[in-house]
Design goal:
The protein has one domain: 3-Layer(aba) Sandwich (Rossmann fold). The protein is built from eight helices and four strands. It starts with a strand and ends with a helix.
């Protein structure tokens, strides 16, 4: 049921998955603004959230260099708190995007039935390029329309991969403990998937 829900997964939930969570929300807001719609309605259309395979940082704020990337790009870091991935988080998601293939395996170990809607982030970005957007349900700015289009997009991406595994280059490097330049590069790579995703959902 709406809103279309995207779950981002990394290891500690303070660097990669929070950046993906907030950059996807930002991309949707920017699409709405460009269409003359109210960007504040983004949360009614799409719920972007995240979790980590480990619980070491549960309750913590985003890692400062990750937060700097979000704010520098026009996003919002308010209210973020890290959490450990639980089965119910996967159950509630229409699309699960993991930072690496290892985390993809972790998700499927918890919920094997989520295989058709779980992808490594870079893998999903590649598949977006081969999905026939014209074959998806019509686009609209209502929660019901976006949900139908999003669910159909995930099914089309799953069909397009034809059971193939993600490629090594689909993984996001872990920037934890590294400099702002590394965080900037990882944020750029995240945007290479979440911006096209927002564009397909809200053309």
């Amino acid at each position: 049921m709406p809103p279309f829900t995207v779950l981002h997964v990394c290891m500690g939930n303070i660097c990669r998955s929070p950046m993906a969570e907030r950059l996807l929300t930002l991309a949707v807001r920017e699409r709405l603004a460009r269409a003359g719609a109210d960007p504040a309605t983004a949360d009614e259309l799409l719920h972007s959230n995240s979790a980590g395979t480990g619980g070491w940082h549960a309750g913590d704020e985003m890692n400062p260099p990750a937060a700097r990337q979000i704010t520098a790009r026009g996003g919002d870091v308010v209210g973020f708190a890290a959490r450990k991935l639980r089965s119910e988080h996967i159950d509630a998601a229409d699309l699960v995007l993991t930072a690496t293939a290892d985390q993809h395996e972790y998700v499927l170990a918890l919920r094997p039935d989520a295989a058709g809607r779980t992808f490594v982030l870079g893998e999903f970005g590649r598949l977006l390029g081969v999905v026939e957007a014209a074959a998806l349900p019509s686009a609209g700015v209502s929660p019901t329309e976006l949900y139908a289009r999003g669910v159909a997009l995930v099914a089309a991406a799953d069909a397009a991969r034809e059971g193939a595994h993600a490629l090594p280059g689909d993984d996001l490097d872990d920037p934890w403990g590294r400099g702002d330049q590394c965080f900037s590069r990882v944020a750029d790579e995240i945007e290479e998937t979440v911006q096209p995703l927002a564009a397909v959902l809200l053309p």
